[in-house]
Amino acid sequence: RQSRPERSLSELRLLVSMVGSDPGGLVFTALGALARLANPPEVKLVLGPAFEDRERFVCVMSALDPALMDRIQVIDGTPDLPALMAVSDLALLAFGVTAYEAAVLGLPAIHLCLTLDHADSARSFTEEGAALSLGHHLETSAIEVAHAIEQLGDDGAIREAVGKRAHALVDGRGAERIARRIIDALDEGVSR
After folding, report:
1. I want to staple 125 with a disulfide (CB 3.0 to 4.6 A). Which of 28, 100, 120, 130 is the partner?
2. What is the enclosing helix (H) or strand (E) of 191?
3. Cβ(149)–Cβ(90) under 8 Å?
4. Residue 168, SS3?
5. Mapping DSSP to helix (H, G, I), strand (E, B) and coil, where does residue 109 land?
6. CA 143 to chain centre
7. Residues with Cβ within 8 Å of residue 104, at least 6 apart in sequence
8. Other C-beta atoms within 10 Å of 51: how many?
9. CA dist., res. 92 & res. 137, Å (int)
């Protein structure tokens, strides 16, 4: 992923993805946050293949300021998320596998969490400076999400540092290390 730390918030490409079905309605929190930004970024908003609240989504989208609507591209279905991540400057994600994929690519991310155990896991990213977790979605407002987007969006140096730390923390080679440990343990057991 090519980083672009010199961009201002309105020049950024923000990826928004809230898991396949979005059972917590996180996409609506994201839209509320985007509506609060004075200079919103260019947004690619992914609706997962199992997203069911389409009627409400259409209503919320149609109520947005037309200038904001022009900055949001809705991608419906199952896109190539790594390809979208590779051309994004910042991500707003439901914490889960997608958060780890973003980290591998060094994409700075803001996490919303569907469950308390996700909030605990996401907190470790924040503690390591590898993302910004806003905690459990029921305890997070659109105003807080907007503030987080502005915080990372307006400071290229912080965005760059978060992306580099994320990539250093999650290098995508965990399965190889686990396999190596299993093979080493098996080899050790055979040689006894």
Report:
1. 130
2. helix 174-191
3. yes
4. helix
5. strand
6. 17
7. 167, 170, 171, 172
8. 19
9. 13
- Residue 189 amino acid letter: G
- Helices and strands (H, E) in the chain, number of each type: 9, 6
Q: What is the pLDDT of residue 89?
A: 95
Residues of the chain with pLDDT under 70: 1, 5, 192
Structure tokens at 7: 């961009």
Q: C-alpha angle with apex 84: 83 to 88, nearest 5 degrees?
A: 120
- Give which of 43, 2, 11, 3 is closest to 145, Cα–Cα: 43
Unique residue bearing structure tokens 């419906």 = 76
Q: What is the pLDDT of residue 58?
A: 96
Give pLDDT, residue 1: 67
What pTM does this model have? Answer: 0.90
